[in-house]
């Protein structure tokens, strides 16, 4: 093939080609190169690359110098430098002209002395591949985000499921408690009644013994008196006489305590989920505290202020109990042992105010603004579902009550509820 024919092919080649000498003068540019440029240039041949591409020349110089110095080809990949030459894509993906993503090869051309006399730049249009690649990356990022959202949702569902399990557990504990309460009530009833009878009998017997002793002291033979007092001493009868009434009294107090626990358990177990009743808030507070006694005992001192009269509100007993549990447990969890838990219920004109205050860790504003969000918790994984206060919020709404929370880090937290008083 003749040189002229070869040059013709080079000129018509759909790939952009530009040849320069060491001084960076353009000695050849094919039609694809000149035609592809967005800058309109009359004729490129004989012009300095630096003048035609002033914005790109710093990068080009680096590449060109390295090729002249090392005699090795160099490459510019679209991902590092997408648009070396200001060209538009010959195959715009969108139908519009788009800026060409390009790979550029810098090829050394050697003379007969094996020196680099010229450098050939071959620019390939990779807009289609690049667009596809970029679309794929965007898709991947979107998928990843979706995946993360699904994972978050999954975690939330898992927590909700735990909460459901918890309430099922509470319900079955409730049933169990009702059964146990019933079973315990009968034996405790007769133990108590027997103890009361024993208390009466013991008082009588001690009385009789006292009198007998006085008679014996006066009228019996000294030998008999000596024998008897020796026996009394050996058996510790005096001690028994003084201790027996105390023992019976303590046992009766014990049965009283069992009775009150059983009552709390029955209250807890027999709540009617749907039933709206005129509820004495003070009584519910007492029963909640009795049920939480074990959690409270080593954690806090309770300062309780309840009204003398009934504090009646129109409410669902189970919900109000749950509200108290959730708020009191949070307060206990926020405290160092032995903190101070203040619960104050007061009757106002048309309302009943309930304040539950702790001197625990408190909350900053950021935390405070999120406490009613379902699943918001600052507790360790598995320790809190973050549903406690969300539930409280719903209960307050349902009862058309109001709630206000004040908290200060390091000082404590105060929940103030205001319920409409029930007037019958
Ligand atoms: N009395 C309080 N003192 C300090 N922080 C509190 C108090 N009450 C609630 N919080 C904060 O509010 C967050 C949300 O409370 P919420 O009762 O809704 O969930 P939880 O206690 O984390 O979990 P769960 O109640 O399911 O055990 C808690 O994690 C805690 O950071
Ligand atoms: Mg909680």
From TrEMBL:
Q: Which CDD domains match?
A: HisKA (cd00082), PAS (cd00130)
Q: Does the keyword Transferase apply?
A: yes
A GO molecular function for this record? ATP binding
**What sections of the sequence does the record tag as coiled-coil?**
133-170
Task: Name the Enzyme Commission number(s) assigned to this protein.
Answer: 2.7.13.3
Q: Which reaction does it catalyse?
A: ATP + protein L-histidine = ADP + protein N-phospho-L-histidine
Q: What keywords sit in the KW lines?
A: ATP-binding, Coiled coil, Kinase, Nucleotide-binding, Phosphoprotein, Transferase, Two-component regulatory system
The record's section on SMART domains has: HATPase_c, HisKA, PAS
Main EC class the enzyme belongs to: transferase
Pfam families assigned: HATPase_c, HisKA, PAS
Q: What is this protein called?
A: histidine kinase
């Amino acid at each position: 093939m003749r040189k002229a024919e070869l040059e013709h092919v080079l000129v018509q080649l759909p790939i952009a080609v530009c040849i320069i000498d060491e001084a960076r003068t353009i000695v050849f540019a094919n039609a694809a190169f000149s035609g592809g440029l967005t800058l309109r240039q009359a004729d490129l041949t004989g012009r300095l690359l630096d003048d035609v591409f002033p914005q790109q020349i710093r990068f080009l110089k680096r590449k060109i110098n390295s090729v002249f110095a090392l005699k090795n080809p160099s490459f510019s990949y679209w991902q590092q430098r997408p648009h070396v030459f200001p060209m538009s894509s010959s195959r715009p993906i969108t139908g519009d002209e788009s800026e060409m993503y390009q790979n550029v090869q810098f090829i050394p051309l050697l003379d007969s002395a094996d020196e680099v006399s010229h450098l050939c730049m071959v620019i390939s249009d990779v807009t289609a591949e690049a667009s596809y690649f970029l679309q794929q990356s965007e898709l991947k990022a979107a998928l990843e985000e979706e995946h993360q959202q699904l994972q978050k949702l999954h975690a939330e569902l898992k927590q909700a499921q735990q909460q459901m399990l918890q309430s099922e557990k509470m319900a079955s504990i409730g049933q169990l408690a009702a059964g146990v309460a019933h079973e315990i009530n009968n034996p405790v009833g007769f133990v108590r009644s027997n103890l009361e009878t024993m208390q009466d009998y013991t008082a009588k017997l001690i009385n009789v013994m006292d009198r007998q002793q006085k008679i014996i002291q006066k009228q019996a033979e000294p030998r008999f008196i000596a024998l008897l007092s020796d026996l009394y001493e050996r058996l510790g009868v005096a001690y028994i006489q003084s201790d027996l009434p105390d023992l019976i009294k303590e046992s009766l107090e014990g049965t009283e305590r069992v009775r009150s626990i059983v009552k709390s358990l029955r209250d807890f177990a027999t709540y009617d989920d749907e039933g709206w009743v005129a509820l004495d808030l003070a009584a519910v507070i007492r029963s909640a505290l009795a049920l939480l006694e074990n959690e409270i005992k080593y954690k806090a001192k309770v300062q309780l202020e309840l009204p003398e009269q009934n504090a009646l509100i129109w409410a669902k007993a189970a919900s109000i109990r749950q509200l108290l549990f959730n708020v009191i447990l949070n307060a206990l969890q926020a405290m160092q042992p032995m903190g101070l838990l203040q619960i104050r219920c007061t009757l106002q004109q048309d309302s009943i105010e309930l304040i539950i205050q702790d001197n625990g860790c408190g909350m900053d504003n950021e935390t405070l603004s999120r406490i009613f969000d379902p699943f918001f918790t600052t507790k360790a994984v598995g320790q809190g579902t973050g549903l406690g206060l969300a539930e409280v919020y719903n209960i307050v709404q349902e009862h058309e009550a109001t709630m206000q929370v004040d908290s200060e880090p390091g000082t404590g937290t105060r929940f103030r509820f205001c319920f409409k008083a029930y007037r019958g």
